[in-house]
């Protein structure tokens, strides 16, 4: 694990140590970050053969795409403040074949990321299981860092959540309760501080198109969803960033932007393999999805560059 500790800035004690706590509440000017989702090594083979319950015994194409994503990010100027990968890092569920090999190869693909760009990881359902247990969450934390935590960037509070605890926490109720208490505390503190913005990152979207949509595998159950939306709006959350859908989706409702970003890896719709650029200014949060090829060839478009000036 020592090599991985050198490669990644790890989350400890529920506070992301890649950013100084002196930045709390202090706006320091516009910046941008990269949101990625679902490299999910192994899904492309599993999807092709129609056996998604297994890990997929080939993942060379996902490794290549992840390396291409790293190339795109490394070419950007100015550098993004961080890159966040919103879950389903690999496809093999806990306890299934190829899991260790997929983790090893994903870390290898990410190792080329410019060291000035912190990498932030979220747990997805394939990383900790559809019904996570204390053991599967502990295994994830050992490999990738805490499953939930907060960090500040220039007066912007970022909350990283474990959305699987919203989906099915029946096998780990104590961990669900701890996560719940922490989230309540974070949102209460956020309301009392001079946050410029509050951003939330989670794997499963609150919704895909509308808060009123029916329950689906790709969104959170309506009762849980409504409760979170109410809390987020009350606290002043600006945007929620997610993955899981393997397609771009989302909508703004009553000032809360639900951003669903397609995958680095397997696409389930017509979107290209890509990344989302998110520009944070004093007044707004602007985001745009790029194909990997477009981002490598052209970098940030002039209108986004202008927002950073």
Explained architecture:
This protein is an alpha/beta fold and 309 residues long. The protein has helices at residues 2-7, 43-49, 60-75, 99-110, 125-128, 134-144, 164-167, 173-192, 222-235, 292-298, 302-308; strands at residues 11-12, 15-16, 31-36, 83-85, 119-121, 149-153, 156-160, 197-201, 237-242, 249-253, 256-260, 274-280, 285-291. Helix 3 (60-75) runs parallel beside helix 4 and helix 3 (60-75) packs parallel to helix 10. The longest helix is centred in the middle third of the chain and has 20 residues, at 173-192.
Strand order of the largest sheet: 6-7-8-9-11-10
Order of helices and strands: HEEEHHEHEHHEEHHEHEEEEEHH
Radius of gyration: 18 Å
| N/C terminus separation | 40 Å
Assembly of the depicted chains: single chain
Mean pLDDT: 92
Number of strands: 13
Please report which band the strand proportion falls in: under 5%, 5-15%, 15-25%, 25-35%, 35-45% or over 45%: 15-25%
Helix share bin: 25-40%
The structural class is alpha/beta
Morphology: globular
Low-confidence stretches: 1-7, 9-15
The largest pleated sheet is described as: 6 strands, mixed
Number of helices: 11
Q: What are the defining features of this structure?
A:
about 20% strand; alpha/beta; about 300 residues; disordered N terminus; 5-stranded mixed β-sheet; 6-stranded mixed β-sheet; about 35% helix; 11 helices
Task: Present the secondary structure layout.
Elements: H1 2-7, E1 11-12, E2 15-16, E3 31-36, H2 43-49, H3 60-75, E4 83-85, H4 99-110, E5 119-121, H5 125-128, H6 134-144, E6 149-153, E7 156-160, H7 164-167, H8 173-192, E8 197-201, H9 222-235, E9 237-242, E10 249-253, E11 256-260, E12 274-280, E13 285-291, H10 292-298, H11 302-308
């Amino acid at each position: 694990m020592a090599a991985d500790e050198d490669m990644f800035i790890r989350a400890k004690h529920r506070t992301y140590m890649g950013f100084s706590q002196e930045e709390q509440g202090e706006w320091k000017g516009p910046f941008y970050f990269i949101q990625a989702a679902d490299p999910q090594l192994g899904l492309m083979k599993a999807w092709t053969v129609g056996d998604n319950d297994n890990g997929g015994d080939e993942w060379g194409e996902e490794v290549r795409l992840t390396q291409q994503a790293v190339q795109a990010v490394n070419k950007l100027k100015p550098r993004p403040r961080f890159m966040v990968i919103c879950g389903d890092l690999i496809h093999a569920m806990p306890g299934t074949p190829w899991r260790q090999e997929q983790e090893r190869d994903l870390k290898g693909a990410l190792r080329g990321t410019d060291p000035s760009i912190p990498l932030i990881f979220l747990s997805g359902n394939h990383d900790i299981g559809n019904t996570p247990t204390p053991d599967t969450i502990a295994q994830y934390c050992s490999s990738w860092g805490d499953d939930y935590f907060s960090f500040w960037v220039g007066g912007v509070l970022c909350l990283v959540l474990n959305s699987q605890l919203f989906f099915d926490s029946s096998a780990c109720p104590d961990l669900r309760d701890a996560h719940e208490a922490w989230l309540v505390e974070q949102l209460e503190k956020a309301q009392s501080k001079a946050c410029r913005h509050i951003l939330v990152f989670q794997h499963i979207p609150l919704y895909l198109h509308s808060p009123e949509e029916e329950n689906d595998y790709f969104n959170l159950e309506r009762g849980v969803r409504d409760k979170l939306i109410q809390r987020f709006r009350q606290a002043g959350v600006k945007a929620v960033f997610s993955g899981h859908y393997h397609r771009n989706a989302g909508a703004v409702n009553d000032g809360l932007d639900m951003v669903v970003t397609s995958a680095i890896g397997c696409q389930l719709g017509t979107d290209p393999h890509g990344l989302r650029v998110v520009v944070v200014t004093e007044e707004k949060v602007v985001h745009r999805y790029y194909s990997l090829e477009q981002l490598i060839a052209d970098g940030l478009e002039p209108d986004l560059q202008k927002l950073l000036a």
